[in-house]
Write a structure and sequence with these properties.
2 copies of one chain form a homodimer. Chain A is α/β, with parallel strands linked by helices. The first copy, chain A, has helices spanning about 40-45, 55-70, 75-85, 95-105, 115-150, 175-185, 200-215, 225-230, 255-265, 295-300, 350-355, and strands at about 1-5, 5, 10-15, 20, 35, 155-160, 190-195, 215-220, 235-240, 245, 250-255, 270-275, 280, 300-305, 310-315, 330, 340, 345. In chain A, strands 8-7-6-9-12-17-18 form a 7-stranded mixed sheet, with helices on both faces. Chain A has a 4-stranded mixed sheet with strand order 13-10-11-16, with helices on one face. Chain A has a 3-stranded antiparallel sheet with strand order 3-4-5. In chain A, helix 2 runs antiparallel to helix 3 (about 75-85) and helix 4 runs antiparallel to helix 5. The longest helix of chain A has about 35 residues, at about 115-150. Chain A starts with a strand and ends with a helix. At the A-B interface, helix 7, strand 8, helix 8, helix 9 and strand 14 of A face helix 7, strand 8, helix 8, helix 9 and strand 14 of B.
């Protein structure tokens, strides 16, 4: 995707061997690249959400392992780096999936061979993510064509949540890949962007990337989505996923479940877009998914740009208030119309997940 | 309710004849009293939400009419002031109800008598609100006693939304009146406070007033409430209302509907607390309620306290983003367990509303 006319990916190796990532904690007010030189930098970058989004943190962990191999390519070094990276965030399955994949490729090799192969595997994973996301766009775009055809105003009105765009992946995105594809094909598209408190990935990241690509969109408070689904226009919901359990239950950014309930109440189709790597047949159902709880400070404070142009962190709650901050929730399979993957439309069910992941 | 040991109401006449209100746009970081000298001040104060909450804006409009009578007690002056005040906010029925009530009392009088009577009626309405809210507390407290008895930890875990506490009324509150009553009676109570974007009445006002009164509470993002209702502990939901239609449909702060859907999905009782003046038999159902749409700036920007102690308005969205901002939504009667009023528990149904409002 283009940023200021330059084709960008969210992650890659720099000329000096470091890992370069778009620093998502600085958006939408500043486009900045952060550099990681060590596996600790990578772990910190994933924890603090310089990079986030299930597909991207998988690829980022692979890049982090490559940095670790530069430093200590021994079996001990590999095991320690894998442990560090897997512990950064618990909910998205892609992270453990990517770390296991890289480790399985490196383990049989002599330590001296590992640094170069680790970089090659990280690059492969990044490229594979781009291919998968583009294919998710191909799978999902017809849903928008259909929604546009059925809409009174001829426009596919898509409600999304959080950021499952190219910033959540290496390029193209998951939920937004069909949006970009349909928009680029000339289908009239409009996206309802819910701000996604507490970290505002919707109003900060999704609004930014849709704006950069010229896709019409409107930001709303998360709270407004029930009213919107009741009164319209919303042709379909399209969100990402951090983990899809064996029965089709979906863990995604907290607040997704509330939208799914309202979509079901008003018969608006509710689609989840995710690469096959997000499907996790080893987790039987949603209740077995670890839901990350993050620091309450993310609820107490928020960063934005003040009138003088400076970025300020401001406190919203009384000084003595206590906050809890679960980052994800589980949407039961029964509320999911289907899963949009790079291998086509997958039913949100045991059979669907089994068939899609059997290879 | 006490603030720093001093008994406070949200509104009253000052010694100089002005109307004194607690300025809710300054909370939770600053406790400040604003003064209105004219009906224009009152209208502006209601529109900008120095005062908000369905019961309070009714009482505030009555006070505004009293200021208008000081200035121009003619029939023309009365009609113009009534029109100005009713137009400030469309969704809460209490505003039009209070203005009509005051007008009906003043119309038969000679202009010279109106200023003093208008003040007396405004005071009566304020006192009546306090009595009604205290009675709502009596009606609702047993629900918390029951929830505490049934809870594994012996605590009534109440989920609320927005602010329906004493700040939304003259004193005691609607949804929070049973909370204060149960807490004061020694029932273990804990309140889940959803922040209530975009104006954060939950994290700013409800957390502040519960904290001031010593009621245990936890602030969560609005998005977290589906997860909380699915996994608990939540014994009951208890929210306010801006208008209850003839069939029991409830208009309340945007986001209420999403909580009601999740509560129903997990069989958590969902109660609406409101004075009878909020019941509107003349509006047949929820779809007939005008839903106020406010300025998108409330979504784009937010005020908080920066590290240096200054209050800052910060921008959250990209500079080019567009936002929409509906302030209320409608919860269908079928999702409402009952309405908690000063005249007892009222079923959320045609029969319930008819019986409660027949006098």
């Amino acid at each position: 995707v283009l940023v200021d006319g330059v084709a960008r990916r969210t992650i890659g190796f720099g000329d000096d061997g470091s890992v370069e990532v778009i620093d998502q904690t600085r958006l939408p007010h500043e486009f900045a690249v952060a550099r990681w030189y060590t596996v600790s930098d990578a772990a910190r970058g994933i924890t603090t959400m310089q990079v986030r989004g299930a597909p991207l943190i998988g690829v980022a962990a692979a890049h982090g392992l490559a940095l670790a191999m530069d430093d200590d390519p021994s079996d001990t070094g590999l095991a320690a780096a894998a442990r560090l990276l897997v512990a950064t965030r618990p909910t998205a399955v892609n992270l453990a999936w990517a770390v296991t994949l890289v480790r399985d490729r490196l383990s049989p090799l002599a330590p001296g061979e590992r640094p170069a192969v680790a970089r090659a595997v990280a690059r492969e994973l990044a490229d594979a993510d781009v291919v998968a996301c583009r294919a998710i766009g191909d799978t999902g775009a017809p849903l928008l064509v259909e929604a546009a055809a059925e809409a009174a105003d001829g426009t596919a009105h898509v409600m999304t949540h959080c950021n499952a765009g190219w910033l959540a992946t290496v390029d193209w995105g998951t939920a937004l890949a069909p949006v970009y594809r349909a928009h680029d094909d000339g289908v009239p598209v409009h996206v309802w962007v819910s701000e996604t408190r507490p970290r505002n990935q919707g109003s900060a990241l999704t609004a930014w990337e849709l704006g950069a690509h010229g896709v019409p969109h409107t930001v709303v408070a998360d709270n407004a989505c029930g009213h919107l689904l009741a009164t319209g226009p919303v042709g379909l919901c399209l969100v990402g996923a951090d983990r899809v359990a064996a029965n089709g239950d979906v863990a995604n950014k907290v607040g997704t479940y509330l939208k799914a309930l309202a979509a079901a109440a008003h018969r608006v189709p509710f689609y989840v877009a995710a690469p096959i790597s997000t499907l996790d047949p080893s987790t039987p159902h949603g209740a077995a998914i670890a839901i990350e709880e993050r620091d309450g400070e993310e609820v107490h404070t928020i960063a934005g740009v003040a009138a003088d142009g400076s970025t300020r962190l401001v406190r919203l709650t009384p000084a003595a208030a206590v906050a809890r901050n679960w980052a994800f929730d589980v949407t039961p399979a029964a509320l999911v119309s289907a899963i949009v993957t790079e291998r086509g439309i997958v039913p949100a069910s045991h059979d669907g997940v089994r068939a899609a992941t059997a290879r």
